[in-house]
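Why show two proteins at once? Because comparison is the fastest way to build intuition. When a single record is shown, students tend to memorize it. When two are placed side by side, the eye starts asking what differs. So, the first record is below.
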Amino acid sequence: MAGPLAGYKVIEIAGIGPGPFCTMMLADMGAEVVRIDRLGGNDLLGLKHDMLARGRRSLAVDLKNVQAVQAVLRLIDQADALVEGFRPGVMERLGLGPELCLSRNPKLVYGRMTGWGQTGPWAERAGHDIDYIALTGVLHAIGGAEAPIPPLNLVGDFGGGGMLLAFGIVCALLEAQTSGKGQVVDAAMTDGSALLMAMIYSLKNSGFWTNDRCGNFFDGGYPLYGTYRCADGKWLALGPLEPQFHALFLDMLGIDDPELRKPADRSRWPALRERLGKLLATKSRDDWCAFFEGTDACVAPVLDLDEAPAHPHNQARRTFVERDSVIQPAPAPRFSRTEPALDVPPPRPGEHGRQILTDWGFNTNEIEALAASGVL
């Protein structure tokens, strides 16, 4: 494996959403991640190519079997980190809780991914991304004036969940190098989504943000930070916030009305939005992109999921890559010396079981005994 985390060994107790996203990030960066799948697999959606499972090998076992749990504990004994995403208490009931694992492997970083966290009055509740971001003010701030709209499941599951846990695990691994001790990383999507709102809460506390959706600079309220439909039905994104970019954009469009050039005057926002809407509807999206090309007017096309991988900038940076005939986001960020690579496609559940056990020190007789007992 290539990448800055090459040499680290991670056990993933397979789940859905943010947990696999976390381990995808760790695997993308070169960590050896062994995915512990259920017998028969975990895929609830029937995905043909699960990008969140890329970069690691799979061992499928029956964790309700004591022999399987003992086998997994032997793997955990050799790991640097473990990632699990069950409700609080599930891993303990399986016999794989952090107290036991850390007693056997004191340097282990034990990563826990939940929506509500390991503690608190809602810790035991079921939920999904939309529920977690609802509790932290995120959902209320996003959408049209009439109703909040969930921003896909990017803020809770992936940004405030999986990415937060990946960051926490790497922090704990760094600390363990000096202390010689592992620890539990409690990553909650409520905590993470709240953290992502730090700037918005700062604006709110300073009097620059209100609770009225579409009444602020970053929520679609400000006419020069929003999207507009063009003549071909496609959309253009505008973002000339700073005074110099704001002036350049309006100059290029020939809008010289001094009353429309005052970004702080919210009373003029509806008139400016109407003016821009009529003007930008006179040409196609790509014509406007050509018009603004090479300038600092902060204009970009709103690309769909088919268009984005083909854009020249994304192609130049290889933001998307093709592996196994599938276009997918490339590992990020970039490194000058330890560049990661996508070498292992998403596995079938249990595809590498015997090889994993062999590589991690199980002998042939032990592997055959596990297979004969139905553990594998």
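Second record. Ask yourself what differs from the first in the token line.
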Amino acid sequence: MGKVKQILTEQGCVVCDTLYPAARAALGYATCMQCGEAMAKDIAAKQHTILPLHKQGYMAFTGSDAREMAKQINPKRTT
């Protein structure tokens, strides 16, 4: 039981209240991996990029759409 205490944190995840690795807490995280990943996906879904389109003005894109559109913006790009 003593070894388990050393590996896991004293307090639980702020979202689901399960114990998570002490090494993760040392890095500054207050959530377990599952809750942290869910929070990161939620934040990424809300982020957007604004790109200027030729003869259309500026448009907002989210997620992978933004990356693909940014690649297509420059017509002189060779790769």
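One difference worth noting in the second protein: The chain is about 45% helix and 15% strand.
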